[in-house]
Amino acid sequence: MINPQPDEKELLKTILEPLLGDFEHWFSRSCQLLESQRLVFFTPEQQQELLDRVRQARDEVKCTKLMFQATGEQVGVEFSVLVPWHNLVTECWQVAQRHRQMQAAR
């Protein structure tokens, strides 16, 4: 059986929907960490600044996800929007890893 090429809507649903879900998940986890733990390798101001950026990105992702759903999954997202989210998730992973390492060293 030959698999036909997916149309744009199927492609968006297959790729964008889980990607937005992943961003939402990691930003929520990062908020939990930043809100519940005092990270000693940050000043309080640095931690708050990161938390503010994560909250803003989480809200942007939620809005994008709602727009995606409201348009019948027919709207895409510019790569220039996704890259900063990806970079922020990577930064959050590094912060979480550093936090775990410091916890393990205690």
What are its keywords?
single chain, 106 residues, mainly alpha, 0% strand, DUF2605
Stretches where pLDDT falls below 50 for ≥5 residues? none
Q: Give the DSSP E fraction (strand runs of 2 or more residues).
A: under 5%
Look at the structure and give the mean pLDDT: 93
Principal-axis shape equals elongated
Query: Could you estimate the helical fraction of the residues in percent?
Result: over 70%
Which structural class do the helices and strands define? mainly alpha
Number of domains: 1
Series of H and E elements: HHH
Based on CA atoms alone, the radius of gyration comes out at: 17 Å
State the helix count.
3
Overall description:
The chain has 106 residues and is an all-alpha fold. It has three helices and no strands. The longest helix has 29 residues, at 8-36. The protein starts with 7 loop residues before the first helix and ends with a helix. The mean pLDDT is 93. InterPro entries: DUF2605 (IPR019728).
